[in-house]
Amino acid sequence: MDTANQLASAGTFQVLKLPLGFIRVLEWLFAIFAFATCGGYSGQLRVSVDCMEKASSNLSIAIDFAYPFRLHRVSFEAPACEGMRRERLFLTGDYSSSAEFFVTIAVFAFLYSLVATVVYIFFHNKYRENNRGPLIDFVVTVVFSFMWLVSSSAWAKALSDVKLATDPDEVQLLISACKDQTNKCGSVQEPRWSGLNTSVVFGFLNFVLWAGNIWFVFKETGWHKGAARFVGGASEKQSSTFTQQPSNQGSFDQSGSYNTHADLGQLSEYSQVGGPSSYANQM
Ligand SMILES: *[C@@H]1O[C@H](CO)[C@@H](O)[C@H](O)[C@H]1NC(C)=O
Question: 74 near 130, Cβ under 8 Å?
């Protein structure tokens, strides 16, 4: 039997059982949903201009727009209802800064959580070294949580403005022919919003994931152990135990403590309540 392989797979299995590792996987999946739904969006609205003089009417003026929502650069032609003359018009507003900020945060969050997952699985001895990994991880996680909150809020606000600026009823107000009561203007088709609504939902879901993961990264830093020492006895009784693969490589348990001197055949505890069970072995 290949012991090294067995240990490696046991390590991989354990790391993904950690809330930290598991949430990182959700984080990069949710980040993909966030930037794909926003960055990949394109929509169309249609309005009709029915002139008194029927020949110059256009009953289906299509206006296409897409990420990054520089609406002031989106032009369309509408009949002026004076002979065959047409006028060139632009939508209003530039929402690219919020949209691009949101997508940028989502892409970087995706990259970070992907790299972090790889590090947890393949380099967790290095990660633990001098506590530098958990420390950086903690700071980055706090920063990304904040960025997700800010960018999702900014994007949610921008989206509501985009919806208003591309509402066919609002777009009609831009067309000069529609100001004349004798011509009839109408909305033919509204843009579909499901994709962009989804991106906002995933933005806030990502914030919840990252903010929640602050706690699990915090546990990795070991800063909680000073306090946990005093409640260690109590939580040890509540924690469920199971026999683990004997490991010389050390184990990575749910409480975040890392036991580097585990002996063969030693019973290591997998704490459900986050008790510092393995830490007790080192004392
Ligand atoms: C109506 O507007 C569309 C663009 O949205 C254009 O392609 C079409 O040729 C116009 N139709 C007429 C009759 O001018």
Answer: no
Q: Which atom of ligand 1 is nearest to the CA of 86?
A: 14
Measured from the Cα of 62, ligand 1's closest atom is 5
Q: What is the pLDDT of residues 180-228, one digit of tens each?
A: 999 999 999 999 999 999 999 999 999 999 999 999 999 888 777 665 5
Residues within 6 Å of ligand 1 by CB: 58, 61-62
Counting the structural domains of the chain, the total is: 2
Q: From residue 147, how far is each of 37, 102, 104, 216, 274 by CA, in Å?
A: 18, 9, 10, 19, 28
Give whole-number Cα distances, 249 to 17, 130, 208, in Å: 17, 17, 33
Domain that holds residue 205: 19-220
Whether 93 and 113 map to the same domain: the answer is: yes
Helix (H) or strand (E) holding 47: strand 42-50
* pTM score: 0.74
Are 101 and 212 within one domain?
yes
